[in-house]
From TrEMBL:
The gene is LOC101642086. It comes from Echinops telfairi (Lesser hedgehog tenrec). This is Zinc finger protein 474. The keyword Zinc-finger applies. The keyword Repeat applies. Residues 19-48, 92-121 form the C2HC/C3H-type domain.
Length: 121
């Protein structure tokens, strides 16, 4: 059984993903239209969760990074914007005092219940 080719070129068609923007609070990707809906809700959730933490684990409110890199066509450099947002989201992580791994503060509490110092060999 021979396969017939309907396209004249042998290159597979490139599937372009729609552009996404990284949330500076949680680090997840959202569409360019959805991010303006997501960020206020994410910040509200962040405040609710932060207020439930013990005082020593509470963090200051994350600030939206300002990226002023504009391409020649007048658009924002999406890669620079996403890199700054990702860095901001990662700065919210807190290191474990025992093993040094980083966690969101509410997850750190759960982790520390089972984290044990490494035994010397």
């Amino acid at each position: 059984m021979a396969l017939s080719s309907t396209t004249s070129s042998s290159k597979p068609a490139m599937i372009r993903r729609p552009p996404t923007i990284v949330c500076y609070i949680c680090g997840r990707e959202y569409g360019t239209k959805s991010i303006s809906i997501h960020e206020p809700q994410c910040l509200k959730k962040w405040h609710n969760e932060n207020n439930l933490l013990p005082k020593e684990l509470r963090r200051p409110e994350p600030k939206k990074p300002e990226v002023r890199t504009i391409t020649g066509k007048g658009f924002y450099d999406l890669d620079a914007l996403n890199e700054a947002a990702w860095t901001s989201a990662q700065s919210q992580l807190v290191p474990c005092g025992i093993c040094g791994r980083t966690f969101l503060p509410d997850r750190l509490i759960v982790h520390q219940r089972s984290c044990k110092p490494k035994a010397a060999k």
